[in-house]
Design brief:
- It is built from seven helices and five strands, in the order βαβαααβαβααβ.
- The protein is of the alpha/beta class.
- It has a single domain, classed as Rossmann fold (3-Layer(aba) Sandwich), CATH 3.40.50.
- Strands 3-2-1-4-5 form a five-stranded parallel beta sheet, with helices on both faces.
- It is globular.
Length: about 150
Amino acid sequence: MALETVLSAVGPKDSGRVDRLAEAAIEVAEPAGATVVLGHVFTEEEYEEALDRLGFDPDSEESTPDGVAQRHSTIRELVGGLDAVGVDHEIRGAVGEHARSIVEMATRAGADRVIVSGRRRRPSGKAVFGSTAQEVLLTAPCPVTFVRIDN
């Protein structure tokens, strides 16, 4: 199976993880000549806050989830890292529940690999609060690379 598309899921807590996420995406995509889809999923509340913070008119063309994702600082930093080594990329945004939306985004993009990040958690913490990364690992339509960030 050829590796053509890698989805790197970027979340609201990933601003301090940019270097590790970029490194993981480059490590997988560059040798294969794959395109990296940088995907950011917003909850409805996060999306409304981002529109307000960016000063977007909710009825304008740029106020789409893709447009808001393109303006997100973490996405822009990742783009810089990918551009520095010549890895092709696209930016996608979605509004919804994080794990489900990441899996849907991977399916729509035809991703051959998904990259997610997270921190180590106790099993009881996952049971009580859930784990986006765990749900993606279990339901993605392709292999998933988990980038553990200790923080």
